[in-house]
Design brief:
The chain is of the alpha/beta class and 310 residues long. Helix 3 packs across helix 5, helix 5 packs antiparallel against helix 7 and helix 10 runs antiparallel to helix 11. It is built from 14 helices and 10 strands. The N and C termini lie close together (5 Å).
Length: 310
């Protein structure tokens, strides 16, 4: 029996100066995506991706369109088509472009707004995020519930890895409880506490912009973060992108659901290999490869051919 292929797309945190430069140099299709981003935003996002400076690339309002643009440029250069698609947090926009739900130009403008609204929702320094390791999900949830202030599990990234977010003092207090429970808590270098209820103002600001965009029914199924479920309608894709702003990324369940539905190869398209690592911890029933540059295309195509041959 042949297996399905999923293309998965990374979110914020995968960015690095130089991403996409090689693809744009060798692929006209990739170069056109960077040019389209520059036109849509009215500025040279391509220069920021290729040359930096790093401190500007790390600003949320720049990071989000940069990560999306790099992923779609690589996707266009790669030229292959998956059976299903998914993305981690911001990466869900890349998955929607891959599936034809919305145009790249609409997506890059939306994520510029998304990044701006998320940064505005909580003053810099007032929020925090931490990666919690070596504890099960229920223990992390219980610690957050027992901690005074706003702190919530927001990214279920795999067995023994949950990210928490909220008010800075509450995240620090929960991190101390994590240590007492024999876990580890690593503070993350982020500018806002993403995917917790403090992001509700960002969700409300983004909603009318999402509503103004045409969403087609996807050409292939998308597995959405907020429900860890498959969607096949454009209206469902739009609603999922709205709700995910202030709700957890259920990545572990999403991967498990894709595997249950027959996915046997995950191809991560974009900067870094974070999703490949997560997937390898979540399941032993599927392979995972990453495509970070054109140098990775040949191996990824061979893996796709092997899975589809059965």
């Amino acid at each position: 029996m042949t297996g399905k292929v999923a293309f998965v797309f990374p979110g914020q945190g995968s960015q690095k100066v130089g991403m996409g430069k090689e693809a744009a140099a060798v692929s006209p299709a990739a170069r056109e995506i960077f040019d389209a981003a520059d036109r849509a935003l009215g500025e040279s996002l391509s220069s920021l991706c290729f040359e930096g400076p790093e401190d500007q690339l790390m600003l949320t309002a720049n990071t989000q369109p940069a990560v999306l643009t790099n992923s779609i440029a690589l996707l266009r250069a790669f030229g292959e088509t998956p059976d299903v698609a998914a993305g981690h947090s911001l990466g869900e926009y890349s998955a929607n472009v891959c599936a034809g739900t919305l145009s790249f130009e609409d997506a890059v403008r939306l994520v510029r707004l998304r990044g701006t609204f998320m940064q505005e929702a909580v003053p810099v320094g007032a929020g925090a995020m931490a990666a919690v390791l070596k504890l099960d999900d229920d223990t992390v949830r219980r610690i957050c519930e027992q901690t005074e202030g706003v702190v919530e599990p927001v990214n279920y990234n795999g067995p023994g890895q949950v990210v928490i977010a909220g008010e800075k003092d509450a995240v620090l207090a929960a991190s101390e409880q994590v240590k007492e429970a024999k876990g580890r808590a690593l503070q993350l270098p982020v500018s806002a506490p993403f995917h917790c209820r403090l992001m509700q103002p960002a969700e409300e600001k983004l909603a009318p912009h999402l509503a103004a965009i045409h969403f087609s029914d996807p050409m292939l199924p998308i597995y959405v973060n907020v429900d860890a479920a498959k969607i096949t309608r454009g209206v469902a894709a739009r609603d999922a992108l709205r709700r995910q702003v202030s709700r957890p990324v259920r990545w572990t369940e999403s991967v498990e659901r894709m595997v249950k539905d027959g996915v046997r190869l995950f191809v991560e398209i974009g900067a870094g290999t974070a999703l490949r690592g997560m997937i390898q911890r979540i399941t032993k029933e599927a392979e995972a490869v990453s495509v970070q540059s054109p140098a990775d295309f040949e191996a990824a195509r061979a893996a796709i051919a092997k899975v589809r041959a059965g």
